[in-house]
Amino acid sequence: MASWLGRKESGEKGTKGGEEEKKVVLDGTEIRELVENKEAFTTFVDHKFQELDVNHDGKLSVKELQPAVADIGVALGLPAQGTSPDSDHIYSEVLNEFTHGKQEQVSKSEFREVLSDILLGMAAGLKRDPIVILRMDGEDVKEFVESPKFEPEALSIFSQMESANESLRKCLTVGLQQLTVEHGMPPASDSWVISNIVEPALQSLSTDLLEQPASQDTFFEEFKKLLNNIIQRLQEHPVIVAHNENTFDGSGIKRLLSNKFELDKLLDSVWRDLPKDQHQKTPKDYLRVALDRMASSADLPPYGAVDQVDAVVNEAFKMVNADDGKIVDEAEFKKTLTEILGSVMLQLEGNPISISSNSVVHEPLESSSTLLPPPSLQTSQNEGD
User: Fold this and answer.
1) What is the SS3 assignment for 240?
2) Among residues 201, 250, 301, 307, which one has the fewest Cβ atoms lying within 10 Å of its Cβ?
3) Has keyword Calcium (predicted)?
C-alpha cells in the first residue's frame, strides 16, 4: 500500500529513552509532485508501461494490466481480488477505467491518462486523510506500564472479561487486544505480531499457569510480566504500523450538492462512460458503479471498503428503489443518483461514522507494488534501527 503513497516527515520530534523519535505522514505529496512534473511522469510511465508490456507489442492486454489493477486495489485498502464480491466489482471498475469497458488493448497514452487520474485521486484522498507511519520500539509500552494509569486500566480490562473461568492465556490475549497504538502496542490480532511478538513473549510465562483459570491478582501480575516481555521483543524487533483515522459525516456530499456546476459536470462525466442501449437508456444496476465513480468527490470510501458506510449506501438505495432493475434515461438516472447522495448525506449527518485502522508493515515495501516504488519511506524506517 505505502508504495503508492507520497510521504513527508512530520515536524514532531521528541526524545524518549535517549533516542530521537520520528513519525512519517503519507499525505500524497510525492504522488502529486510526480504527476505534475511532466518530464518525470513521462519517464515514469514509459518505464512502468515497458515493465507491464510483457510481449513488447506496444499495447497492454487485459492480462498485462492485472498487476496494475491489483496494486491500485491494495493502495485503496481493498482485500485481495477473489476474496470479496463487494470489492471485486471495484477491481473490475478500475480495469474498465483503463479499457473503457470495450477495448481489449490499451495504448501508452491511454494508460498514462487513466493512471494520472487515479493517482491524483489517491493524492487528494491522502491530503484529506493522511496515513501516519509509526515506529513502535517498546518505549511507549514501557511508559504505560510504569505509569499510575496502568493498574486501573489493567483491572478494568479484566473486569470486562465475559467469563470468570477463562484461562489466563485467553485473558492475557484479550487484554493485549484492548491496547492500542496510543499505548505503543501494535495490533495484537495481526498474524505477524502474534508470531514474532506476542507468542515469544507468552512463552516466557509459566505454561501451567497460562492454562489455569485467571484470578484478578494473577491476571494483573502476569499481564505486567507479559508487557515487559513485549517491551523487550519490540526493542529487539521494532514494528512499523500505518495508522489512519477517518470520519464520514456527509460534509463532502453536502459540498458537492451545493456546487451545481461541479455536480452537473461530474454527473455528465459518469453518464458519458456508462453503457447504453439504442435509446440512450441504461439499467439502474449501474447506479452503484456511478456512485463509486463519484465517491472520491463526495468524500466517500469505495463500496466494499467500509462496512458501516456500505450499510448506509444500501439503505439509501432501498429508499429510492434503486435496485428495481428498471431501465432509465439520462435525466431519471441523474435524478436518482442525486437522491441517493442526498439520502446518504442525511444519514451520515445524523450518525457520523468514525473508523480507525492500523496496518502492520511487516514486509519490505519495495515488494508491495510493481508501479510506484517507495525510495524514501524504507530509508526513513531503517534510520531508527
Assistant:
1) strand
2) 307
3) yes
d(CA 73, CA 83): 12
The band of 86, judged by pLDDT with boundaries at 50, 70 and 90, is low
Cβ neighbors of 301 (< 8 A, separation 6 or more) are 246, 248, 295, 309
DSSP output for 245-273: EEEE-SHHHHHHHH-HHHHHHHHHHHHHT
What CATH topology corresponds to 1-136+357-379?
Recoverin; domain 1 (1.10.238)
Which segment of 38-42, 147-151, 282-286, 356-360 scores lowest on mean pLDDT?
Answer: 356-360
List beta partners, residue 105: 61
Q: Residue 10: is its pLDDT beyond 70?
A: no
Please choose, from the candidates 285, 290, 248, 287, the residue with its C-alpha nearest in 3D space to the C-alpha of residue 266: 290
Write down the mean pLDDT value for the chain.
82
CA distance 11 to 271: 44
Q: Is the pTM of this model over 0.85?
A: no
Which residue from 128, 108, 105, 126 is spatially nearest to 116, judged by alpha carbons? 108
For residue 189, CA distances in Å to 140, 173, 179 come to 19, 9, 11
